[in-house]
Amino acid sequence: MKKIIIILSVVLAIVIIVPYKAVHIFDGGSRGYGSVAYTFVKYHRIAEQDENENDTEYEVGWGIEIFDQLVYKNTHIIHEQ
């Protein structure tokens, strides 16, 4: 019985922790990688523009979500003309 509990625990931990999906987010090129418990998002999306700006601004960086709650986000804006 102990061996069955250990095997089931290991299988459950693998299912929860190991990333199994890659998601394309339709916001300009962001991608998400994750499992049941977390998602790692690599941002590359168009930022909001000012009326008097002619260049395109992109938000790039990464973030971590645990059970769909954002816990860390590290992004910055780059400008392209």
Distance between the termini: 65 Å
Biggest sheet descriptor: 5 strands, antiparallel
* Radius of gyration over all CA atoms, rounded: 18 Å
- Portion of residues within helices: 10-25%
**Structural class by secondary-structure content:** alpha+beta
Reading the helices and strands in chain order gives HEEEEE
Low-confidence segments: none
- What is the overall silhouette? rod-shaped
How many strand units? 5
Characterization of this structure:
- With 81 residues, the protein is of the alpha+beta class.
- Helices cover 20% and strands 49% of the residues.
- It has one helix and five strands.
- It has one helix spanning 2-17, and strands spanning 21-24, 31-34, 38-46, 56-66, 69-80.
- A five-stranded antiparallel β-sheet has the order 1-2-3-4-5, with no helix packed on it.
- The radius of gyration is 18 Å and the shape is rod-shaped.
- The mean pLDDT is 85.
Features:
81 residues, alpha+beta, five-stranded antiparallel β-sheet
Secondary structure elements and their pairing?
Blueprint (H helix, E strand, L loop, with lengths): L1 H16 L3 E4 L6 E4 L3 E9 L9 E11 L2 E12 L1
Antiparallel strand pairs: 1-2, 2-3, 3-4, 4-5
Quick summary:
With 81 residues, the protein is an alpha+beta fold. Helices cover 20% and strands 49% of the residues.
